[in-house]
Write a structure and sequence with these properties.
With about 130 residues, this protein is an all-alpha fold. It has one domain (about 30-125). It is about 55% helix and about 0% strand. It has helices spanning about 30, 35-50, 55-75, 85-105, 115-125. Helix 2 packs antiparallel against helix 3 and helix 3 (about 55-75) runs antiparallel to helix 4. The longest helix has 21 residues, at about 55-75. The termini are far apart. About 15% of the residues are buried.
């Protein structure tokens, strides 16, 4: 019978909660790991749109891929390689980074899509005239 006590010395690390493959072994690797494959596909699309099209639209798609990753990590019990740390940490970091990318894209100059007074105040501090 094995003891349920923690070992005196750590010999390895446990995988994060929810890190099992999202689909069974009978599927190919991209299908087994469909959550991260989907997030990477959306991020790749965002990078392509940023490179070849409008940078604001591309960055919104890129930020949305991070928010998608946060939603998938929160909603699905098994997400495969999308799980890095605890569910709480993964969702918090992904949501924060995704929200930051989206917010910064919305207030990016020239011609911001979202006008925030704080951004105008910072612009005047660094010497940009008010419009």
């Amino acid at each position: 019978m094995r003891s349920r006590r923690r070992p005196a010395r750590t010999t390895g690390t446990l995988p994060p909660e929810g890190s099992a493959a999202a689909a069974g072994r009978s599927h190919t690797l991209p299908v087994r790991q469909w959550p991260i494959s989907l997030v990477l596909a959306v991020a790749g699309l965002g990078i392509a749109v940023t490179r070849f099209g409008d940078f604001k639209v591309g960055l919104l798609v890129l930020g949305s891929s991070l928010l998608l990753a946060a939603v998938l990590r929160l909603a699905l019990p098994e997400v495969g390689m999308l799980a890095v740390r605890s569910r709480f940490t993964d969702v918090g970091v992904l949501a924060f980074l995704g929200g930051a990318v989206v917010l910064l894209t919305l207030v990016a100059q020239p011609d911001p899509w979202l006008h925030l007074g704080v951004v105008d105040d910072i612009g005047r501090l660094v010497g940009r005239p008010r419009r």
